[in-house]
Amino acid sequence: MLRIAVIGAGHWGPNLISNFHANDRSRVAWVVDRDAARIEVVRRRFPDVRTSANIDDALQDPNVDALVIATPTRTHYELTKQALDAGKHVLVEKPLTDSVETSMALCKLAEVVERVLLVGHVFVYNDAARHVKQRIESGDLGRIYYISMMRTNLGPIRGDVDAAWDLAAHDISLASFWLDAWPESASAVGGSYINAGIADVVFSTLRYPGEVLVNLHTSWLNPRKARDITVVGDKQMLTFDDVNVSEPIRIYDKQVEHDSRRPALVDSLESFRMSVHDGGIAVPSVPASEPLRNECEHFLDCVLGGESPLSGGREGLAVVRVLDAISRSLEGRGREMAVEIG
Predict the structure, then answer these.
(1) Cross-strand pairs, 2
(2) Hey, which residues does 331 pair with through a beta bridge?
């Protein structure tokens, strides 16, 4: 039975508390938050959980095995460092930290103290997303040309990080999981309309090995909540909509056919139509699942069973390196920047 302290009871924290407290292999021993109103809500919902406004209460409890950190990004480094120094395992929400240097430091520290460090890139634990990975690895889609990813909504507007650091972390981890690779370079442009110096919308392009392009549209200043992803291969194409719970994936039997018997020059509308194969649409059956529950179960598997984290510190560091390249490109007004994964 793993005893857990959840740090942060705001937007995402209650979901983590519920998952770990209802699990047969874990219990939430402490919830820490400086907001008295949030603590009161926790006390009403979970009367058997101890609460505090001071993280030291949880860190100094010898019965606490792990900390789950769901606080603003700028606090991740210090809180995670304190937890690892105290000998606790850590699940920290994405992104790992707000800089490459601090993310590297946490990875090294976790290795030294031999504790699990897992980053909450929850979309790699989505069963539908794993189905997409299987389709890509099986060769069903053929060679992947590009992936287009749109993650938008109206709010919540952040004041600590821009839209890329807040939202693109999901898609970077997901695209890299699907392609089994990390970007070689990144370019980005964005606009700051609400808070000066903090981009509310960022358009990023990542260049992966094999000239695979991944385009990201991230914004909290958009009238529509969208989680639209398109994967284009030379054999088939695919869409993934995480908002559509019943039919998240559609497979399109569409491609541009390369037939040597046809003229090399497409000089008319009719000949263009002849070069395109437009088949049917298949909707694969994907069992409904709860990605956060899968993530929490995986954390327990890593701590209690010794499994290697799917989204561990090294993966979290790689995502931060990509986000750093996006930030440098924003400062350079769209100039392509190298991503040094290391």
Answers:
(1) 26
(2) none
Sign of the CA dihedral running 152, 158, 163, 168: negative
User: Does the domain spanning 2-122 belong to CATH 1.10.150.170?
Assistant: no
| Residue ranges of domains in the chain | 2-122, 124-291+322-338
Q: Length of the chain, please?
A: 342
> pLDDT per residue over 293-314, tens digit each?
999 999 999 999 999 999 999 9
Lookup result for tokens 């287009």:
148
Over residues 191-216, mean pLDDT: 97
Cα separation, 261 vs 263, whole angstroms: 7
Contacts for 267 with CB less than 8 Å, ≥ 6 apart: none
CA–centroid distance for 134 within its chain: 18
Whether the Cβ atoms of residue 217 and residue 150 lie closer than 8 Å to each other: yes
Question: How many whole angstroms separate alpha carbon 173 and alpha carbon 314?
Answer: 12
The dihedral built from the CA positions of residue 318, 145, 127 and 291, taken in this order, carries a sign that is: positive
Q: 3-state DSSP call for residue 253?
A: strand
pTM value is 0.93
- CATH classification (class only), 124-291+322-338: alpha beta
269 falls in which pLDDT band (50, 70, 90)? Answer: low
* Per-residue pLDDT reduced to its tens digit, 89-133: 999 999 999 999 999 999 999 999 999 999 999 999 999 999 999
Q: Sheet holding 237-241: strands in order across?
A: 276-282, 249-256, 237-241, 221-233, 144-154, 212-219, 201-208, 185-191, 337-338
